[in-house]
Amino acid sequence: MECFSCHSADFKTNDFLVPELSEGYFGGGNKPLNEEGKVMPTPNLTPDKATGIGNWSEEKFVKALKSGIKDGEAALRYPMKPYPELTDKEAAAIYKYLMSIPSISNKVERNLTPQ
Ligand code: HEC
After folding, report:
1. For residues 36 and 49, what is the distance between their CA atoms, to the nearest angstrom?
2. Is this prediction's pTM over 0.90?
3. Which pLDDT tens digit goes with each residue over 55-64?
């Protein structure tokens, strides 16, 4: 589903044939733009507990991915879109995959300006 293309280091260093070889695979920090042309740095989705999603439960991940709600708040802003078409099982499979890849310690400063 190309999650890695936004959630790795940079579009320029992504490897679309062998995604795992992309620089900073799932470590976040790539800089897609929102609808106003402002940078929306991508979060780290590796199992790193301090800077990634290592402390997220499967339930929290599935809910955020499908509905865009995290801890009761709207959490996914453009260009990250919720994926309501995924079944719980599919979303949980993505979570399990992400928990199985190497951790990368990379603290990403988010753009938290309201949209
Ligand atoms: C077009 C680029 C893009 C794609 C493709 C994309 N994301 Fe994102 N994602 C983002 C951005 C940007 C954010 C941060 C949004 C914000 O700050 O509101 C984000 C946020 C998230 C978050 C919230 C993390 C946190 O710490 O709050 C999760 C979880 C996530 N994405 C999972 C995924 C998954 C799984 C896929 C593939 C099914 C995916 N993303 C595909 C750009 C993308």
Report:
1. 32
2. yes
3. 999 999 999 9
Q: Give residue 26's identity as a one-letter amino acid code.
A: F
CB of 25 within 8 A of CB of 100? no
The 10s digit of each residue's pLDDT in 33-90 is: 999 999 999 999 999 999 999 999 999 999 999 999 988 887 899 999 999 999 999 9
Q: List all residues whose CB is within 6 A of at least one atom of ligand 1.
A: 1-3, 5-7, 32, 40, 42-43, 45, 61, 64-65, 70, 75-77, 79-80, 83, 94, 110
Query: What is the CA(74)–ligand 1 centre distance, in A?
Result: 13
DSSP string, 44-92: P-SS-TTTSSTT--HHHHHHHHHHSEETTEE---TTS---TTS-HHHHH
